[in-house]
Amino acid sequence: MKSKTTAAILAFFLGGIGVHRFYLGQTGRGILYLLFCWTFIPAVIAFVDFIIFLTISDDAFNQKYNNGQVAGVSGGVNTAEELGKLHELKEKGVISDQEFELRKAKLL
């Protein structure tokens, strides 16, 4: 789970070399920042990113960088309920035992 505060701090202090982009899982953009860091253009863009991270809502940040997940909640779903649904699907033969185990591992 990526933190908005951590991303903002990284953008402010190390944004010129793209560390915040690597942290957010945007490796391609991070490499571009590294390639062009000598021009100081990435530093300016990183400062804009810093301002955006400070002003963006937590929900919007989570939607964009955490696939909509909320901190402290496993994807915003009731895990026991989801496991029950998966078990029902397995019992009905809709999903295999192997697929059940994979989905269960993702939930837990």
From TrEMBL:
Protein name: TM2 domain-containing membrane protein YozV
Annotated Gene Ontology cellular component terms: membrane
Family annotation (InterPro entries): SHOCT, TM2
Alphabetical UniProt keywords: Membrane, Transmembrane, Transmembrane helix
Localization per Swiss-Prot or TrEMBL: Membrane
Domain (TM2) ranges: 2-51
Pfam families: SHOCT, TM2
Residues passing through the membrane, by range: 31-56
Domain of life of the native organism: Bacteria
Source organism: Mangrovibacterium marinum
Boundaries of every SHOCT domain copy: 81-108
Membrane topology category: Multi-pass membrane protein
